[in-house]
Amino acid sequence: MSTILRPFIDKILTAFFSTILTSFALASIMYRPKELMAQQQTYYASFIELFVWYSIYVFVIYMTVGIGISFLIEQRTSNTWYSLFLHGILGGLIITIFSLLSGIQTDLAELLGIFVIGVSAGGIFYSVQAILLRRRKK
Predict the structure, then answer these.
(1) Rounded CA gap, 38 and 55, in Å?
(2) CA dihedral defined by 80, 81, 86, 89, rounded to 10 degrees?
(3) Contact 92, 64 (CB under 8 A)
(4) Beta carbons within 10 angstroms of residue 120's beta carbon
(5) According to DSSP H, which parts of the chain are helical?
(6) In degrees rounded to 5, what are phi and psi of residue 101?
(7) What is the spatial distance between Cα 11 and Cα 39, in angstroms, rounded to a whole number?
(8) What CA–CA distance (Å, rounded) separates 80 from 130?
(9) What burial class does residue 20 get, using C-beta atoms within 10 Å of its C-beta: 0-12 exposed, 13-18 middle, 19+ buried?
(10) What is the pLDDT of residues 72-126, one digit of tens each?
(11) pLDDT tops 60 at residue 1
């Protein structure tokens, strides 16, 4: 495979696997069994529905912004911890900006929670990327 395309394909694979992990974590956190819900005749999403919706949302963000920012971080630094820090902080900023642009009214506490989710998503992306690159080098 061409040396020009290989890094881009690696980033797409990283985005795909990161989407699965991030969506699974978000769906696990947000899922509430119907038996535990107090309100009758209220729709509650199943775990699979949450997973699918989060997957769509997360994959779009990873593909549109995450891959480009990851390339920029790689060009700017080779320090592992600093790179992880940048992936996390920029992931938090990106998801917070996406949430604000979506027009959903949120308070400061919700924005902080969204920022933490973005930091986690950026850390997951960096970790999956490191694992894939390490396996490819062997």
Answers:
(1) 28
(2) 150
(3) no
(4) 18
(5) 5-30, 47-61, 67-76, 80-101, 108-137
(6) -70, -20
(7) 43
(8) 10
(9) middle
(10) 999 999 898 999 999 999 999 999 998 888 877 678 889 999 999 999 999 999 9
(11) no
